[in-house]
# Entry
Amino acid sequence: MATQKRSSWFGLIIAVLAIAVAVYFFLDGRRLRQEIEDLNTGQVAEATLGQDEEPAPIEEEDDAEAVVGALETVLARGKLILGGHGSLPGFGVLDAASGEFTGFDVDFGHAVAAALGVEIEVIPLTAGERFTALQTGQVDLLIRNTTWTLTRDSSDVAADFGPTTFYDGQGFIVRRADGIASIDDLDGATVCVTSGTTTEGNLADAFRERGLTLTTQVFSETEAAFSAYDSAACDCYTSDKSQLASLRTTATNPGDHMILPDTISKEPLGPLTRHGDNEWADIVSWVVFATFFAEEHGITQANVASFESDNPTVRRFLGHEGGLGAKLGLDEDWAVRVISAVGNYGEIYERHLGPQGLDIPREGSLNAQWKDGGLIYAPAWR
# Structure
């Protein structure tokens, strides 16, 4: 009987212990699950906080900060500073009589200044100086017979190109007396060339492609290079054909020289602004387009002030409706001022590059209007 009683008590104790252990593990498990839940909730909250927070602003690079605000700078100064050519007839040259710079490129600088209602100052730059002057803010705008290339449109030069104002190509000028008819006759020739331009590379590529040999004489200044050619220090001079036509007018005897028919490269020329200054680049681009548009629609320097039209596109151009000036940060009469100042593209071309200027034929070239088979074309004015 005593044995059975002890067994009962022993069984009861075992049962109580089992229940205690179960309760312990139940409570501990509950605590553990709560901790896990709290941890997960905390992680989610942290992750959510990270998503809701504004991302830290990316610090602008120094050069980007430097270029922002060219428009404000020009307006505050009341003057546009244009980097141009100072001794290239037809494109940029100092007129001794007036003391002013004139030329095809210079007129587009005047067009931008007119759109803003400011004065203009032209700083003549060499080929080697031009990009540094733009990068450092010495000039607000560069229009100096500068070719649009991938390298120049990259971080190497940090420039943004506007619309092409003149489609050119590299060629050669030779003395008629030498009997040279094409590039193939230049095998073994000595060629004068200007450094700091696309010309050197194009020259080497063209001769290499044709299996020709050459000797180059390289000069830092265009005038020095052409002068060396004019004095017979080399057999020919190579550059953009427009520049050759311009330089030929400065030769001792212009009629003694001819430009070969060969064109060895594509040289689209136009305005450059500092990379990243989008507002300023937009204004420069649409000023150029304004001269294209005006020619297409028969709007000239003489009639722009009184021009009337029921064409909605033309009315937007003239600022009569649409409010497009505000989209560029300009007033509504900006395009009228541009054409009043310099005329349309055809007038600018005729004035400097036509028969009374360098006499570079436009008909049948890429510089003709798009309706005539060329590439002079303004985007939609809306």
The radius of gyration is 36 Å. Confidence is low (pLDDT under 50) at residues 1-7, 12-67.
